[in-house]
Amino acid sequence: MTSPVNDASESNTLVTNTLVDKLAREELVDMVPYQSARRLFASGDNDQANSRTWLNANEAPGQGQYQLSSENINRYPDFQPQALLNAYSNYCNLPVDNILATRGADEGIELIIRSFCRAYQDSVLICPPTYGMYAISAENHGAGIISVPLVNTTEAKYQLDLEGLEQQVGKAKVVFLCSPGNPTGNTLPSAQIKAAIDIFKDSAMVVVDEAYYEYTNKELGAEQVNNKLISQCDNVIILRTLSKAFALAGLRCGFTLSSKEVITLLSKVIAPYPIAAPVAEIASKALTNDLGVMQARVNSAHSLREQLSEWLKQQKWCSEVFNSDANFVLFRCNNIDEKNKVFNFLVEHNILIRDQSKQLQLDNCLRISIGSEDEISQLKQLLDTL
Ligand SMILES: Cc1ncc(COP(=O)(O)O)c(C=O)c1O
Predict the structure, then answer these.
(1) Which tens digit of pLDDT belongs to each residue from 75-90?
(2) Ligand 1 atom closest to Cα of 249?
(3) Which residues face 238 on adjacent strands?
(4) Which among 215, 219, 269, 311 has the fewest CB atoms less than 10 Å away?
């Protein structure tokens, strides 16, 4: 997408010397912002947006029904609304002192970088292919980015390169792990996550992004394993969100789980009223009344995901379907022409999926979010006519 400033700068050199250009941090002037699913297809036209089938942001289908009270709306909300913290505490079995509510997990990512990395001095470590916001937030803040790509072993694909990580000890302040990974979909074995935490125990915070936690087939007691990690290791941070399995992406509510010390530190950096009162009200209701609905949504996503994966495996343009523990399926097309053909054909028919082919190791890969049964069957019917 070309910005108006770029258009103008091509035709009128005076525009490039605006006061903003002169004063802005130089590296931001040409920086490309995160191309979120919404931003890529922004039209500003509500009817057009509503006529599209959005299978590109790993949102859950279906709208919740929430009644809001406007009582106290004239007042600022609590810094951390108590009812919300209590509700998440009950849900995740951690004391409230270990929880920070944020504007989505994305705000957690940003706060962690701003709290631990000095601009232009410190770095974060990412393991691509991975979620794009770790690098974007680091870049925004002026933190360096070290990459230790995921590796394929004889047993499993897209695993941590523990030897590669060891070589970076002392060079990064924050290490981002994503499990289940977006866009790869696989859960990292807990032994690998523990090994990474041990490797960086004296030198870096290890962030385990569990945005898709609810969709995983949890090993027995996974909840306890996480809680044990937080109580036993000083350098662990877990990210969660209501945007996925709770079907509340529009609410912007996530949670950072860590030691009391880390939560106290992040609380110094976060905005004074991060959680709007209506957000706290809806999120608290979802976490207390709607756990059964959430579980049913997850179960339905599991069966749709398996059906879609099986169907993809039979398509002649598809060469690989990735195992997924989340609410999306990543697949590889035979070549770039077929990848473009599938993607563009869907867009022409108002079905939006995500092109992941620019990511490391993901040539010709596309990702489909598990929408409703209707949406997935529309997509399959359409591709049958390709
Ligand atoms: C791995 C991962 N982490 C974090 C997020 C951001 O979640 P939120 O909507 O809570 O900001 C996403 C969103 O797609 C994601 O895929």
Answers:
(1) 999 999 999 999 999 9
(2) 9
(3) 208, 257
(4) 219
